[in-house]
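hi! just following up on the protien thing from before. the input was this:
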Amino acid sequence: MNIGYVKVEVKNGVGKIEFFHPKSNSLPAALLKEITEGLNTLSENNEVLVIHLKSGGEKSFCAGASFDELLEVSNEEEGKAFFSGFARVILAIKNAPKFVVAQIQGKVVGGGVGIVAACDFVVATEEASLKLSELSIGIGPFVVGPALERKIGLAHFSNMTLNPTSWKTANWGKEIGLYSEVVSSIIELNKRLEEIITLYKAYSPEAMLEIKKMLWEEWFDLDEVMSRRAEQSGSLVLSDFTRNKLKELKSK
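and the predicted 3d structure came back as:
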């Protein structure tokens, strides 16, 4: 339980990925790698008609990057490698030849917001507030930026980026298009996810694939953009400001 887990299973045409980390579902490099591998495996499985992404627990969907691991970064190369983990998850969702449906039960921060933005259909509870906290610790949402700009536009992305301590409500997330639907409880969340997945299983795989290509067609160079952005984050995370902030937050 100290290092978390990633579970991947296939049942009745649904490929499910569940991740968990005891620190509010924050994501160290090892879990990011496992999530990416799980997405790629399900993408290649012809028995899978739709992919269901969720996290364990009930309080937080994802708290973003692991502060413990960020503090261990000792050079720019290591920094880029860590932030590239989020890029690879986003690219795996983008490149999956089937819809990725996300189940958001609680708060979403930083890199987690980028993962949500990449998913094709997202159902969240009213507890699923959001924020991009990167600026407050001396970095920025560089890697996840392209996925967010694509989904919610530059104005809303700027709003989140420049208000790093401000939580946005789940309903705000729905209004700007980050969430597809917002429901009142986890019970309703589970019910609605089952309904959506059942519908997608009955639709034409060919049609869903072509629709997904259409929705991403203007972002063919996403991997190159995020690679450059990972370098930016990898450099900034080494600053005295960021390291002091991370130590301060870790001690709380």
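The chain has a mean pLDDT of 95.
The chain has one domain: 5-202.
cheers
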